[in-house]
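Appendix B, record 7
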Amino acid sequence: MSTKIKTIIVIFAAILIGFTSCQDDEYALGDLTAPTGLEISADIVGASAEFPNGDGSGLVNFTFSANEALSFKVDFGDGSAPKVYAPTETKKYNKVGTKHYRVIVTALGKGGITTTAIKEIDVYYAFDIDPAIVTLLTGDSPTGKKWRIDSDAADNLGNGPGPDRPDGNVETFIPSWWTAGPNGRSTKGIYDDIYTFTNTKVFTHQTNGDMYGLKSKFARDFDPETPGVFGGFGDEWILSYPDYTEAFDYDGDLTGNNGAPAQYITWEQKGHCGFFMGSHKLMILEITETTMWLRAITPGTNDAAWYVRLKVAD
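Structure tokens (predicted):
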């Protein structure tokens, strides 16, 4: 009994001493002040009076600074996830053409108090296309190389499942749903169209007075008041439209061509080849001195892929 009492007394004394010691210590978090003077510096590589949006590399050297900031969380405005970066960071933007980005920087201070600033920039990025493709497409000519639909080929036009099929159809890289057949669209005003690509990135579409595609997409990207006639099925339309010229560019990714690197021809407003279903971005599946096979994905839904086979115009 006496042993237990002594043990309890010792434990109680230890607790009392510890409590007294804790009472003597005082802790303070300090001032919880939000960072001030947050600044974002964006030096676009290659920017000049002639090229204010950069040299096409897409590179921007950023510097973030603020008083009392412990770290910087950055949203570069290109769709990538915001995360914490060092006060100096080089960012590569890779959307082809001149694009507008809204950069949001949050400076983190003591106790998690933050300050946010926004900077808006325009950056030009030019995809570095394989020079061999440029040669085959344009003939390395400032006046261009002319192409037309290979109407004698069975798959001169066609479609198949795209990457986002809601019905479970597996994406293919061939027109597994439908092909036009040799001269199968000879009454649609499409086989006499001439597409010219120059090595200065100028595209000319010689329509010979009409184009074939979806009426709703023509109304969106061309003159909605331009007349035309029903194309024979659904939203198909034969649009009366004159020749036009537009700049084009190149784009690419590492896995777009059935898991392999992909390279594309792109336009900003009207440009296309073949049946117009609203896309201004065509993947180059195959290209030789005399033939070219292209693929486009239905914009917005990504549920279908459309194909056109071209040959050098006589």
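Remarks on this record: Residues 36-125 form a domain with the Immunoglobulin-like fold (CATH 2.60.40.10). The mean pLDDT is 88.
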